[in-house]
Target: IstB-like ATP-binding domain-containing protein
Amino acid sequence: MKPIANTVDDLFQPRELAEDEYLNEADGLIYCSKCHTPRQHHIELKERVFLPTVRCRCQQEEYDKEEAERKHQEFLMQVSRLKANGLQDKSLHDYNFSNDKGYNPEMQKAHDYVAHWEEMKVKSLGLLLWGDVGIGKSFFAGCIANALVDKGVPVLMTNFSRILNTLTGMYSDDRSQFIDSFNKYSLLIIDDLGIERSSEFALEQVFNVIDSRYRSKKPLIVTTNLTLDELKHSKDLARARIYDRVLERCVPLKINNQNIRELNAAANMQEVRKILNSGT
Model:
């Protein structure tokens, strides 16, 4: 092994020129033959001259380009992981703005929510999307979810049927940890509030999820087929305390729209007829 003193002395020794370099006699530094900027830096250290190697301009540009590409690939991998974790139902991946067919006149508000996400996050503001069955509430919420995930924001979109199936059979401590795990997501989206089982256990767990999110002071988006009047004036005490929590943090937004499922069914039927009739 080389003595440390010899290793340090080596740092002060001149190095050989590479094929794409030349020695600038004006300052005694090695320069790049391509961009004509120095690949050495002049440092005086205790009356000795130290000429450490540095990147010339073209080397720095290439390094910056490679570093930007590396970070971009890391970001894409992060987005992929976020989608796999938070949008586990693969059909949700198609719920994005690029697939919006313009049926929903309220869709601009979804764009606005994404555009003002930082403000929504700071103020813990969510949305309560309500209206009839099949009019695109889930699509609206999914568009927000995908747009934010594409920005690297952790989002979980799920429903209480799935949550309750997981909670059933868990011990109390495990249930608490599972519910608290939702708060690692910057945005939680609960689809179809109100269709869950009406058992005492189910309603208690629904409240625990909503209350945990409420206390975390993180945004929540909820979709429901219930009317705003049903949400505000529930005669069931267990449901009333759930809906009160939701209404305090989630701004109600009625989705006035045609029935998208019926429109899609009609379009599919027309396509099938076109195919079948093409052979006649």
